[in-house]
Amino acid sequence: MRELRTTFVKTLMELAEKDDRIMLLNDDTGFHLFEEFEKKFPKQYINAGICEQTIAGIAAGLALSGKKVYVYGIIPFVTMRPYEQVRNDICYHNADVKIIGVGGWQYYKFLGFTHNVENNEDIKIMKILPNMKVYTPKTAEETKKVILKTYKTTNPTYIRL
Rounded mean pLDDT of the chain? Predict the structure, then answer.
């Protein structure tokens, strides 16, 4: 998983070099992953803290103001906790928000069910949202291709790493 996350950030930095509309938001996760992005693009990075529903609203607002928004977090905290806001604020407005979910049952099992998903719960609930596209890259190469492909789109997207 570390390789996929690193590829995501590296690819996003390459895009941000050319496009100052890119915004990266996270929910107080991704330590030792975003420091370089934050240093290089301080006006394009927000660590919003532990406020999952609010992050979805911020992301929608930024996207509807012309930004290309990427929201990064542990799967339950970018899919389940803010589900209503993702649906209402992002999907119904067809906002250009890319949601990047990481982790799952194998990575945070020791933290209990609040930090985990099983049986592809996240994929199942995200696929039924209006305007939402879902991707599950398995390798670094696939991750880069998905990030580059979805950068060119303007619809809501969920990418599970």
Answer: 93
